[in-house]
Input
Amino acid sequence: MDTHTFDYLKQQENLNRIFKVISRRTDGLIDLGVIDSAGQHLAYAGPYNLKGLNYFQQAWFNEVMTKGKYISNVYMGYRQLQHFVIAVRGYSNGRGWILRATVDSNIFYKLVRTAQTGKSGDAYIIDKNGIYQTAPRFSGKILGKSNLDLTLFGQGTTVVDKIKADGKTKHVAGTWLKNNEWLLVITQDVGDEKGGLLTTRNTEIIIIVFGCLAIILTTFFVMRIIFKHLEEAEKGISELNEQLIQSDKMAALGKMATGIAHEINNPLAIIGEKAGWMQDLLDEEEFQESENFKEYEQSVNKIEEHVERARKITHNMLGFARKMEHRLDDVDINNVLNQTLELLQSHAQTNNIEISKDFQSELPIIASDQSQLQQVFLNLINNAIDAVEKDGLIEVKTRKKDSQIVVTIKDNGPGIAEEHLKKVFDPFFTTKETGKGIGLGLSVSYTITKKLGGTIKVESKISEGAVFSVKLPIKIPEK
Amino acid sequence: MFRILVVDDEVDFSETIVNRLKKRKLDAIGVTSGEEAVALLKEQLFDVIILDIKMPVGMDGIETLLEIKKIQPLAEVLLLTGHASVETSIEGMKLGAFDYCLKPLKFEELLQKIGAAFEKKSAHDKKIRDAKIQQLGRYPNKVFDQD
Output
């Protein structure tokens, strides 16, 4: 209006040119129009043909003519587009004229949108009747009615708190624009207005929490590892103690066994020699004619056999606490077991105990001590027979496993109580009646097996019998 | 005729061993203490002496052994031992005993060892005899010349 004259602008082609120039620089301008003092639309540049329309009767025409300018509310109009109108009055040759521009309210929206911050922040413009002039972000739409109580907003900028339906408090700030006709409203949920700060604070808290958690977890795991080590050390110490106690027991026992064995050895030697002497005498002819000769001979042989057995036992007792130089024979384990079982067969049969053999054929011949192994098996099978007592089953099994021969002796006797399991290999531990066993059998077997480089173990549950397994290393005899 | 002396403090034992040896046509005598053995050895010659190491009263086996070696160094000594004194037996063998047997005895083993002791003794005796003959044989001509 200040740059061009009325006469220039009312020419349609001039107006077109200006419209083009403005459109090129900004978007949002929909059309331009020039109207004379009589309300006649003299020139129009834009997509609609509005030229020639008369606005004399329109309320806004009178307002411009009297007030000098007019800005409409946003409306759809017959353009079906959210827009508003700006009109200004100029004077030419003493007569007023009007330059009118229609603006797409979207540019408003774009401006206002930059104030929509955070998750819940909103910004919009409403007119004094509460009609949305730009689209709010959440509830409501453009040209819809806002439920904001406009009386809350005084002159200048006002901040009020508003309770939402869902119980959240919102900060609402408003300021009047355009001669108090439009209200720019900015809302933000309480708590969200410090969104950035909160985010930083939250991040900090998360870092601290995770840091603490990491420290706690690390401490926990380190402590656990340390505790585990301590526990293991403790276990090792107690095992060591147990071993020490065991070796103390063994040493004490060794002394006792030596004494006992010596005392028994002398009478045993005499019994043996007397029996030998009797046998020598039986060789004489006069005895051979006796009708009971065979009985005598058998009895004497039995005495010698059992003196030999007792001799082995005392020698084992003597060898118990000291290193006994043991001979290495070529031992066929199955053979040793067969011999041992033969010795015990009659004892088992009288008690109606079945002994089943499950021997792996072709077990390797190993370098070991035959008579000592026999002692071990004799002890174990004897114990099994004693445990079963009457009418039962004993299973003797041999297997080759890796570099070991495993002999298992399983009975279906009453089993061993858990509190006794740890003690069965202790010297003088026995559950047998007084006079039936002194509790050396398993202890001696344990020592012998260990000396031969093997191990002996027991598994048992009450009323499920017991399984003794002897593992012997496969040592190939030197040829 | 080879002669055997059995020294053991258990009379029943030594007596029986002596009987069994005699039954096998061997000349054996039994005594029940180290002192008795020493006294007898001063009067009679023996080839093999069976000696119990553990004799709680009076002289023990090792002491007796030392005396035997002084009186009759050529007699072979077989030690009798319970298992725990195997080391003592080995000690004894270093002191000149021929071998040892574990008690209670395996009689066959004892006989075998007596046999071995006899062999050693007789080989030794033969050496000594041969040496004597050789010593005498240096001058046989002289003797004949004189006659």
Remarks:
- The radius of gyration of chain B is 18 Å.
- Chain B has one domain: 3-122.
- The longest strand of chain B covers residues 76-81.
- Chain B touches chain A through 19 residues (CB under 8 Å).
